[in-house]
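Why should sequence recovery work at all? Because a backbone constrains its sequence more than one might expect. Tight turns favour small or flexible residues, buried strands favour hydrophobic ones, and helices have their own preferences. The token representation captures these environments compactly. In the example below, the structure is given first.
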């Protein structure tokens, strides 16, 4: 990588922040995070994994084929740098796979089946939050992350964490909006049935529930159809 001045790094990260902001959908943003990581650090490949209750799940890579292959090797071995970064909320650095003694099975598979020779995995999290996921950088040469690159990657990982948190927050807001809309439609549907069949609100809700069971359609879809078309078959 070409040397950058402090002003050069500042301009680069300002542009990266703009790129991540305009990336579009969650999938596009995550892919862009992985893609831009190669530009910032000079690494060969990069991957974003989301934290789950079980194991981190790869959400985007700069190159899907090798990224997914590495993820499968790590899953088969039951652990590796990405998993450790998320589980311990730390940064995991593997300068040279040839001399690495952690995760022996995973390391052996990487050496035999991939061109990866160095790894740098960052836990992505904001203050006072559980890990959101991990940013993992891969290189096809050992000692690929000297102090200057390591520091730049650390700053970039903070940008990635903010972008990942933005998508998590947006998804939560979208889900809440859907839940509120569904609640309103069910309420309207219950009101229609109360008026049409002269039943209590509890009985009307039970009618929706029974209709859902009989038709194998979600209750909210039954309610939506009733509100939109006025059609309803009494399941009692």
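From this structural description, the recovered sequence reads:
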């Amino acid at each position: 990588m070409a040397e950058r001045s402090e002003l050069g790094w500042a301009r680069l990260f300002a542009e990266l922040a703009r790129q991540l902001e305009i990336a579009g959908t969650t999938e596009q943003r995550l892919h862009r995070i992985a893609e831009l990581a190669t530009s910032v650090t000079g690494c060969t490949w990069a991957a974003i994994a989301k934290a789950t209750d079980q194991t981190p799940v790869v959400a985007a890579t700069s190159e899907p084929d090798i990224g997914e292959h590495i993820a499968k090797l790590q899953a088969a071995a039951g652990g590796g740098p990405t998993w450790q970064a998320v589980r311990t909320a730390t940064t995991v650095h593997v300068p040279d796979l040839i001399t690495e003694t952690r995760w022996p099975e995973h390391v052996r598979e990487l050496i035999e089946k991939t061109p990866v020779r160095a790894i740098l995995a960052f836990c992505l999290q904001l203050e006072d939050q559980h890990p959101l996921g991990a940013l993992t950088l891969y290189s096809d040469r050992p000692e690929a992350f000297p102090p200057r690159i390591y520091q730049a990657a650390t700053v970039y990982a903070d940008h990635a964490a903010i972008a990942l948190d933005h998508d998590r927050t947006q998804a939560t807001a979208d889900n809440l909006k859907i839940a509120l809309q569904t609640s309103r439609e069910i309420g309207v549907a219950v009101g229609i049935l109360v008026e049409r069949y002269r039943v209590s609100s509890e009985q009307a809700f039970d009618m929706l529930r029974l209709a859902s069971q009989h038709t194998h359609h979600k209750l909210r879809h039954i309610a939506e159809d009733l509100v939109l078309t006025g059609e309803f078959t009494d399941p009692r």
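A few observations help interpret the result. The helical segments are 6-21, 26-41, 64-77, 81-88, 104-113, 147-197, 201-215, 219-229.
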